[in-house]
Design brief:
heterodimer, A: about 130 residues, mainly beta, six-stranded mixed β-sheet, four-stranded mixed β-sheet, 2 helices, about 15% helix, globular, B: about 170 residues, OB fold (Dihydrolipoamide Acetyltransferase, E2P), five-stranded mixed β-sheet, 10 strands
């Protein structure tokens, strides 16, 4: 018998791999033809080196599509929900960014789970401040 | 007015022997011996692989997995601005419960449980900088001096010093 699963997209920024809920990604593609004002380059995850791919995210606040620039999109994974953990309470209240929401334990190692709309919203907030 | 009984004025030898001892959990940090109330500690573990968190304060160097649970690591040295504990997979951490928070406190080395008669505990020096800000008492056992940390206050201060989540990006 199989339990409920979470559909995740795995991507890299710099040397680190992150996970996000697939549902939050509108589409994935090249950043070449994307309007520069909609690109989100620098976030709490850092600045991508290769800046090769973009994950298009619908911002919750203004219903505007923004493209999170990443180095690589590794693919999607269907992960049993028991492997998805929230951020420990102490870490949650200490982090500057609210975009890191938890962990996925893949092969026993914690992979950071990122809320893409929050990530791009935070960056947009900083950019307009 | 009746006189106090003899036993109320002078403890019997048996009562003297039963002077309450305080149990502390002792670790080495910042070049000294520091301790906190032993019941706060649930277990001592090795860190293993540490996962760094983006946009985290320096006193929160990362998280690690222990028995399927993800635990945050607290570096007291970083919090008090006096360096950092060298973190390796073999570094030992004391898992503590402080109110609603469960954290793994890292140190240079772990001594374990020590007992000090409560009457031998003295107030900490009247300093308010660095780690002295978080001392609740100082004491001594056969191995030397021990500074007792008010760990719940220290953890709460760490939380308060961190920027609240969602208030901005790196």
């Amino acid at each position: 018998m199989t339990g409920p699963t979470s559909e995740l997209v795995l991507f890299q920024v710099g040397t680190r791999t992150y996970a996000a809920v697939v549902h939050d990604a509108v589409r994935i593609g090249s950043v070449r033809d994307v309007a520069p004002e909609t690109l989100v380059l620098e976030t709490a995850l850092g600045v991508p080196c290769a800046q090769a791919r973009g994950i298009v995210v619908m911002s919750h606040d203004d219903a505007v599509e923004r493209t999170l620039v990443v180095d690589q999109v590794i693919g999607t994974r269907s992960v049993p929900e028991e492997l998805v953990h929230p951020l420990p309470a102490f870490a949650a209240v200490c982090l500057v960014s609210g975009a890191v929401t938890g962990f996925v334990l893949l092969e026993g190692d914690p992979l950071l789970l990122v809320d893409l709309p929050t990530l791009v919203r935070e960056r947009a907030t900083v950019a307009t401040a | 007015m009746p006189e106090p009984s003899k036993s109320a004025q002078q403890p019997e030898p048996a009562a003297q022997a039963a002077v309450p001892e305080a149990w502390f959990f002792c670790l080495r940090l910042l070049g000294g011996r520091y301790a906190f109330e032993a019941p706060l500690v649930t277990e001592v573990v090795r860190l293993g692989a540490l996962t760094r968190l983006p946009a985290a304060p320096a006193f929160l160097p990362g998280v690690f997995t222990h028995r399927g649970e993800v635990l945050p690591v607290l570096d007291i040295a970083q919090l008090v601005g006096q360096g950092a504990v060298s973190l390796r997979p073999s570094t030992r951490a004391a898992i503590v419960h402080c109110g609603p928070w469960k954290v793994a406190v890292v140190s240079d080395s772990v001594e374990g449980l020590v007992s000090i008669p409560r009457r031998q505990l003295e107030p900490p020096p009247a300093e308010s900088t660095g780690v002295a800000e978080f001392l609740s008492a100082v004491g001594r056992d056969r191995a030397g001096a021990i500074a007792v940390l008010d760990l719940p206050r220290l953890v709460e201060t760490a939380r308060a010093r961190a920027v609240p989540a969602g208030s901005g990006a790196a």
